[in-house]
Amino acid sequence: MQLTKGCPAMTRRTARPNDRALDAFIAAKAEIDIMLERLKALSDDHFETHPDEINWGNVGTLKHYAGLLRQITDSAFKEGEHAA
To answer: Which superkingdom is the protein from (predicted)?
Structure first.
């Protein structure tokens, strides 16, 4: 049984002790993938703004989003405060 599309290496042949952890991992990954797709679509749409309507509030919002995403990428890639 294939667990994810595009990742044929992650297949299950027999029941293993970590099956529940693997299922939870795949579910968490799917949740992240959905969030990333939604963020990408919102970014592609310029965060639902029009150039004539941009104000400093929009800038602050995007900087806030960028800061939150930086925390995630720093952790994932061991950069910033997470650097070794």
So the answer is: Bacteria
